Amino acid sequence: MPSFDAVGEYLEINQLEAVLSDAVAICVEEERPQPLAAIADMLYERAAALAVAWDYGQLTADVRGLIEREKCGPVFVQLAFADAATYSAALGGGGPNAALRFADRGEGAFPCNAFLAKRAVPLLEPIKAQYPNISRADLWAHAANVAIEALGGPSILSRFGRRDAATSADSVPSAAGRLPDDLASGAEASPSEHMADHLRVIFHRKGFTDREIVALCGRHTLGEYEPPNGAPGGGPWTEHPNRFDNSYYVELLSKKYEPSACGSAGVLLRSSDGSTIMLPTDHALLRDPKLRVYAEKYASDSKSFFADFAAAWEKLLELGCTRLAPHPASLTYASSCVVPCEWLELPLRTRRDHTHDTAVYGFGLPEPTQTLRLPACACLLVRAPARGKEGRDAMRAYFPTSDPGLQGTFELMVRRGSEPPDEVAAWLHELPIGSKVAFRHPALCLKEQYPFEGKERFNMLAGGMGLAPMYQILWKMLFIPADERKAVLIYHSRTTADILLRRELDEWARALPHRLTVVHVVGDAPDAAPPEGWKTTDTYVAESGEVDKAKLSKYAFAPSKETLCFICGPPALYTALCGPREERALRQGTVLDQLGYTSSMIAKL
Q1: In whole angstroms, what is the distance from residue 250 CA to residue 259 CA?
Q2: In the prediction, which pLDDT does 266 show?
Q3: At CB < 8 A and 24+ separation, what contacts does 137-141 make?
Q4: What is the dihedral of CA 579, 582, 586, 592, to 10 degrees?
Q5: Residue 210 confidence (pLDDT)
Q6: Which of 341, 455, 543, 548 has its Cα between 20 and 30 A from that of 49?
Q7: Of all residues in the chain, what percent carry a pLDDT higher than 70?
Q8: Using CA atoms, how far apart are residues 203 and 200, in angstroms rounded to an integer?
Q9: What are the strands, taking DSSP E only, across 196-333?
Q10: The CA-based dihedral angle spanning residues 584, 358, 363, 155, taken in that order and rounded to the nearest 10 degrees
Q11: In degrees to the nearest 10, what's the CA dihedral of 38, 40, 46, 49?
């Protein structure tokens, strides 16, 4: 056991005494029933703050400068890969922890890591010394991301909070089953014969799909292959190893390669002119039909490669990690909204049923006193991991429906069982309370914005979930004291049970009858009969069928330069009233065109 003096010195150097004292004092003052859990949470918050307690812009500039001086970007990418790719769900453990820096045993002594321990690790140590609060594992990951972008690749958001290994004992015991065995043994005539199966065994254990495997192989567009333990016979994969592009796939598909001995380490493949190499694991992308289809796609479509690589690479660098967060200075914002343009994970706090097929989900904001501050007509993107086509992430835009003044949280209304199927909604419905959900605020979603200068009257034409942005606008318009403008909401639902926010709209129409008129249109066909008991009340007009020319002529504000029509709903609603949502202009021959409205009077949300 260390001496009392040594413990005291350690507490003082790491500023732990004050933190622990403050945590204990809070537990006593608030009479916390589980003090150890409370103290653990407080210490985590302190650790998370320290993990980003450094100058993001300056550190990033220092890394970029190092890359430019030493031409070391490719080895930083290889270092980050070797550190993170030890993770295996099947074998347990592994993941980014900078254990590779210990050369005595463990990951630092793996033959495939020998050159990284000698070349890449020492290059970053001066920067680590200059910024002591960043962990080495975080620094290695961020250096790789900086290198990828600096060499022409996609911009990848770095998230921080990884923990460094204390000693080599924190390494995984072996590379077998965790890292790709890139070389074939002996003098095999077809060294890539079984490598596709090998790649799948390695990467499926990490949670990657075939598409992600091929995308991650694209990291070989950078740098040179260094054989294990310094054996001769390596070389670059591409003719421009310091440029991040899709040339790895182009050359893999277009060049001829022959088996070539790599010292005593095994066999790789060398191009006919001897200038570049491919590993048997690379060549496997050609021999396996399911993998080849992605290699061909990336060879012809660099944009798809960049997008898929960025997503897979970000996933790789965070394997086995929890509670990672971006540096606040790295985030960009499209508006006043506290959710940035980059993905931000927020906790699912509540879920409650709203109608027979919709639910309201509540999410926590980063700070308990924050409000969402999302502009009217703006949306948030939600990401459902691996729920899209071919195992890709699914994404969907949602318009929050909660009170804009709500502190510490916001709400989304989500419909289940919609047509076409909404994979994000299905995923949300399965999540347990407390799960993290990734959001971002896309810059391009800001369309017509409050206060809608020059407009005095508003027609809100909505169907189904298209009510949500109308609800946002009404929150703004109806409850700002100086705003006396008027709105007509004409809202279509298939049945009365499908009407969303009915109670809330009733309350607003009752409180402000001179400013808000609500027309509920119910039916699943143009000539649908009114449901039994469906009649007009003091808060809404009851109609049946669909939103059509007759109803707009009867209830909507007439065309004028002071009138603005908002449209949001299913594709059929846009097609009939104004033309497809993707077309900004009003299409000729549509209902609104026939009624005399012009493109300047139309806002497709």
Answers
A1: 19
A2: 74
A3: 137/83, 137/96, 137/97, 137/98, 137/162, 137/163, 137/164, 138/51, 138/162, 140/76, 140/79, 140/80, 140/83, 140/96, 140/98, 141/80, 141/83, 141/84, 141/96, 141/317
A4: 40
A5: 94
A6: 341
A7: 91
A8: 5
A9: 224-225, 235-236, 257-261, 267-271, 277-278, 325-326
A10: -40
A11: -100
155 and 75 Cβ atoms separated by less than 8 Å: no
Second CATH level (architecture) for the domain 457-604? 3-Layer(aba) Sandwich (3.40)
Right CATH for 195-309 from 1.10.8.80, 1.10.420.10, 2.40.128.270, 1.10.260.40: 1.10.420.10
Tokens representing residue 186 in the block: 């002996």
Provide the 3-class DSSP secondary structure of residue 381.
Answer: strand
pLDDT tens readout for residues 167-209: 999 999 988 889 988 655 444 434 455 889 999 999 999 999 9
CATH superfamily assigned to domain 334-445 = Translation factors (2.40.30.10)
Question: What percent of the chain has a predicted confidence (pLDDT) above 90?
Answer: 69
Separation CA 492–CA 466 (nearest Å): 9
**Domain spans of the chain, in order of start:** 4-51, 56-170, 195-309, 334-445, 457-604
- Per the confidence metrics, is the pTM higher than 0.85? no
pLDDT of residue 418: 64
Compute the distance between CA of residue 441 and CA of residue 380 in angstroms, rounded to an integer.
5
pLDDT in tens, 549-567: 999 999 999 999 999 999 9
Average pLDDT, the chain: 89
Residue 207 region, left (φ>0) first, then alpha (ψ -120 to 50), else beta?
A: left
Strands (E), 338-393: 344-355, 358-364, 380-384
Give the CATH fold of the 56-170 domain: Peroxidase; domain 1 (1.10.520)
> How far is 517 from 510, CA to CA, in rounded Å?
10
Neighbours of 448 (CB within 10 A): 16
For the chain, the 3-state helix, strand and coil shares in percent, each to the nearest 5, are 40, 15, 45
285: pLDDT strictly greater than 60 = yes
Region of poorest pLDDT, from 31-35, 271-275, 574-578: 31-35
- The CA distance from 397 to 32, in Å, is 40
Q: Which residue has the tokens 């009858």?
A: 513
Band of the pLDDT at 9, cuts 50, 70, 90?
low
Which residue do the tokens 């990828």 mark?
Answer: 148
State residue 387's pLDDT score.
Answer: 86
The candidate with the shortest Cα–Cα distance to 216, out of 124, 281, 138, is 281
Give me 247's structure tokens.
């040339």
